[in-house]
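Re: [ENG-882] Designed sequences occasionally contain unexpected residues at chain ends

Forwarding the minimal case from QA. Structure tokens:
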């Protein structure tokens, strides 16, 4: 798929990464990553994804950082603001929840697929963070992004996409969140065509859902689209296309909700 360059919206000014006056408006934080990273396998659960996305939003995607300079501290208060509006979250022990999210993030890895000039498949495994630290009784966690992931989060000039954290932070399904990120690459066109095998890969669909498209539709696509239509800023429809007797790819059509539909 040939990708168009997307212009990033203005990023709120941030004096330093670890603390920020615009943390009060977490919904307005901008999450930016390269299209290559967007289309990779992320191996994240939803709490780890929330923590990661918030940490990414505290970076200036146009600036250059060393791994040490990406050291980011997230407090329990910031975590609770991020969890506002998340259906079913009670917040009885937010530090425990944040700690588990950090552990999930540290254990997760990115899987990137490339093709060499000679046509050979090349698979690269990368850790999201190189440091994950918490101290009992201090109500905060600290992380540093790994060196290999930095080119996909910083010094970005083309082939990247951005979205507001508030558009997705209420999502409870990774299928929904990852589908949103994939569609966001094509937000200027309002439609996206994805081969079914690529959709399986990016959404990390279990083998049981790959056997028939009916299972994929029932357990993955229909719930994800339903959640995105209810909780995100998008209105989405989709259709599966067959080549012969089998579904070969899926079209998604989407646009921004009118302002009145967001409330």
């Amino acid at each position: 798929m040939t990708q168009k360059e997307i212009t990033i919206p203005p990023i709120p000014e941030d004096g330093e990464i670890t603390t920020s006056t615009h943390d009060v408006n977490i919904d307005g934080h901008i999450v930016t990553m390269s299209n290559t990273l967007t289309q990779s396998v992320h191996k994240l659960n939803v709490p780890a994804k929330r923590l990661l996305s918030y940490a990414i939003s505290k970076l200036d995607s146009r600036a250059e950082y060393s791994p040490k300079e990406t050291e980011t501290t997230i407090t329990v208060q910031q975590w609770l603001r991020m969890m506002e509006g998340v259906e079913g979250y009670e917040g009885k022990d937010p530090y425990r929840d944040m700690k588990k999210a950090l552990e999930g993030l540290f254990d997760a890895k990115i899987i990137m697929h490339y093709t060499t000039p000679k046509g050979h498949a090349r698979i690269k495994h990368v850790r999201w963070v190189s440091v994950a630290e918490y101290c009992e009784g201090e109500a905060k966690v600290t992380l540093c992004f790994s060196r290999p992931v930095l080119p996909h989060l910083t010094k970005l000039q083309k082939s990247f996409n951005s979205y507001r954290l508030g558009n997705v932070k209420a999502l409870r399904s990774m299928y929904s969140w990852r589908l949103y990120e994939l569609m966001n690459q094509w937000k200027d066109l309002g439609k996206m065509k994805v081969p079914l095998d690529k959709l399986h890969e990016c959404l990390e669909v279990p083998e049981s859902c790959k056997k028939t498209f009916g299972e994929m539709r029932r357990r993955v696509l229909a719930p994800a689209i339903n959640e995105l239509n209810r909780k995100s800023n998008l209105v989405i429809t989709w259709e599966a296309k067959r080549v012969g007797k089998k579904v070969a790819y899926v079209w998604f059509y989407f646009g921004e909700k009118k302002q009145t539909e967001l409330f």
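QA comment: On inspection the terminal residues look reasonable. The two ends are 35 Å apart (CA to CA). Proposing we downgrade this to a documentation issue.
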